[in-house]
Amino acid sequence: LYFRTLMYRIVNIIRNGIKPVFVLDGAAPDIKSTVLEKRQKQLGHSGSSSTERQKFTTCSKKCIELIEALGLPYIVNSGEAEQMCAWLNSSGKVDGCISDDGDCFLYGAKTVYRNYDQTKKDSTIERYRLETIEDKLDLARRDLIVYALLSGCDYNEAGVQGVGQKKTLSFIQTLKSTDNDVLTRLVYFIFKY
């Protein structure tokens, strides 16, 4: 099923005049293992994480074979794919990243396309630009990093206990009124206490 889905997506992307560059995950950092195991359980996978990783590796190899057969470029990153996607985007090598993972902005992406849906007659996708987030929410990349750390992200899923999204946003806005670099201020606070 994943193979057929990938093929349809590739055809649809190319049909729309997009020249894709595929980026695949390498080894996940150890700090993310708890989150990955939890996701496997939510998906109904009861096997060990090493078994699931083997399945993922097999799936990735088959996807690479398809991508190679179509003559399309791809990169297997040494770590998170979003990190490489963001670098490719921020350095101007690609116009944007197609990913449902918000970490792309934390890694420095300028444009992220999410919620790609080709089930309807016309495919749809949502575009998010860091510039728009900065203008409308007054949140720069470093502010988004603080937001993710406090309210929850792949590396700290629960975030800070008792601090949700609204409190985090309010905290960031309060700090920004006295200091533009909220991330530096947060790091200073953590290491001071």
From TrEMBL:
<keyword id="KW-0227">DNA damage</keyword>
<dbReference type="InterPro" id="IPR029060">
    <property type="entry name" value="PIN-like_dom_sf"/>
</dbReference>
<keyword id="KW-0479">Metal-binding</keyword>
<comment type="similarity">
    <text>Belongs to the XPG/RAD2 endonuclease family. GEN subfamily.</text>
</comment>
<keyword id="KW-0255">Endonuclease</keyword>
<keyword id="KW-0540">Nuclease</keyword>
<dbReference type="GO" id="GO:0008821">
    <property type="term" value="F:crossover junction DNA endonuclease activity"/>
</dbReference>
<dbReference type="GO" id="GO:0006281">
    <property type="term" value="P:DNA repair"/>
</dbReference>
<feature type="domain" description="XPG-I">
    <location>
        <begin position="68"/>
        <end position="139"/>
    </location>
</feature>
<dbReference type="GO" id="GO:0046872">
    <property type="term" value="F:metal ion binding"/>
</dbReference>
<dbReference type="GO" id="GO:0017108">
    <property type="term" value="F:5'-flap endonuclease activity"/>
</dbReference>
<protein>
    <recommendedName>
        <fullName>XPG-I domain-containing protein</fullName>
    </recommendedName>
</protein>
<dbReference type="InterPro" id="IPR008918">
    <property type="entry name" value="HhH2"/>
</dbReference>
<keyword id="KW-0460">Magnesium</keyword>
<keyword id="KW-0378">Hydrolase</keyword>
<dbReference type="Pfam" id="PF00867">
    <property type="entry name" value="XPG_I"/>
</dbReference>
<dbReference type="InterPro" id="IPR006084">
    <property type="entry name" value="XPG/Rad2"/>
</dbReference>
<keyword id="KW-0234">DNA repair</keyword>
<dbReference type="InterPro" id="IPR006086">
    <property type="entry name" value="XPG-I_dom"/>
</dbReference>
<dbReference type="InterPro" id="IPR006085">
    <property type="entry name" value="XPG_DNA_repair_N"/>
</dbReference>
<dbReference type="Pfam" id="PF00752">
    <property type="entry name" value="XPG_N"/>
</dbReference>
<dbReference type="GO" id="GO:0000400">
    <property type="term" value="F:four-way junction DNA binding"/>
</dbReference>
